[in-house]
Amino acid sequence: MQTPKKLFKYKKFNDDCMELIIDDYLYFANPAQFNDPLDCKVSILDDVNDEGFLRDTLSTLLQRNSEKKLKASAKNLRYKGPVTAEKISILSQSEAEKIISDIYSEFSFAQYDFNIQTINQVLTSAIGNIILSGYSRGVLSLSKKDTCPLMWAHYADNHKGLCLGYSIPENTDNKIRPVSYTSEFREIKISQIRRMLDGDENAKAEIEHNIFLRKAKPWGYEDEWRMVSDVGLQNSSIYLSEITFGLRCKYTTIFSVMMSLSERQTPVEFYKIIEVPHKFTLEKERIAFDHERLQGLPRCMESLDQMLNDEE
After folding, report:
1. InterPro entries this protein is in (predicted)?
2. Number of neighbouring beta carbons within 10 Å of residue 13
3. Is the distance from CB of 190 to CB of 199 less than 8 angstroms?
4. Confidence at residue 38, expressed as pLDDT on a 0 to 100 scale
5. Which of 186, 147, 168 is nearest to 31 (CA)?
6. What is the pLDDT of residue 253?
């Protein structure tokens, strides 16, 4: 699917919104903050039903996680060379074996949830915990639509907010991907995880898609596209090119935003949402400083009083 030339972000107007606009940041949210609790949540499906296979997969995951941490520590301490690499390998293997041994011991003493009744379920659960903890990433949600009544109501403070329009450069379009809307199970298969560990890039892409790029069908009206990065503020890699103000957005807010960007090196176009007569649809029209509701802002009552007194 071809990436749209422009995508949109609905926002409530507040200090955080102004920071994104003026400092030209993007905010990648933790999926735990999403209004849909099922978003970015998946289950791990044991499609192999082989204890040895599961144990080996878990061991590989544990060793690689341990090696990653130990290598980072060694780098900070400036330890390197074949001896260090060998020690890291031995320690990682030893740690993995201990964790798996503990899992079997706890299972023998029935210390797991009553829903977990077999060792395969225990191993699958442990694999899932590691996989999902490794994908603690932030998500930027964008939409193809900028005149959607539902999204203006839900995400832009009942039309009192605004909608940021971003132009998508060609060198970024492969990082922005569409969301799939489905009624299928939210799951990752053990066989996919094993293929990923064996270096299969397609399996890795499938897993990332299942975590970050799938939502329930009722959300389809959003026409959502996503970028994935570290949680928090990031320098913008897409270009803010327009801002549309909601139907109920205060004109003092509109004036403030327009003034704050009036000397921006790359100009931004401004629009205002308007009603379409006799229809349940919205349109947008250009707005500039010569708009009748913006003329005379900012007001100064002292000057107005003085002008009126002079006329008397």
Report:
1. DUF2971
2. 21
3. no
4. 84
5. 186
6. 96
Res 116: pLDDT: 58
pLDDT number for residue 114: 53
Domain spans in the chain, listed from the N-terminal domain onward? 1-30+137-183+216-312, 43-133
Instruction: Give the DSSP per-residue string, 133-200.
Output: HTT--EEEEEES-SS-HHHHHHHTTTTTSEEEEEE--TTTGGG-EEPEEE-S--EEEHHHHHHHHTT-
The position carrying tokens 């905010």 is 27
Q: Which residues of the chain have pLDDT under 50?
A: none
Q: What would the DSSP string read from start to end of 184-225?
A: S--EEEHHHHHHHHTT-HHHHHHHHHHHHSEEEGGGGGG-EE
Q: How deeply is 122 buried, as exposed, middle or buried, from its count of CB atoms within 10 A (0-12, 13-18, 19+)?
A: buried
What is the Rg, in whole angstroms, of the alpha carbon atoms belonging to the chain?
27
**What is the distance between the alpha carbons of residues 74 and 244, in angstroms, rounded to a whole number?**
51
| Paired tokens of 161 | 């907010």
d(CA 135, CA 154): 27
CB 96 within 8 A of CB 104: no
CA distance 12 to 146: 14
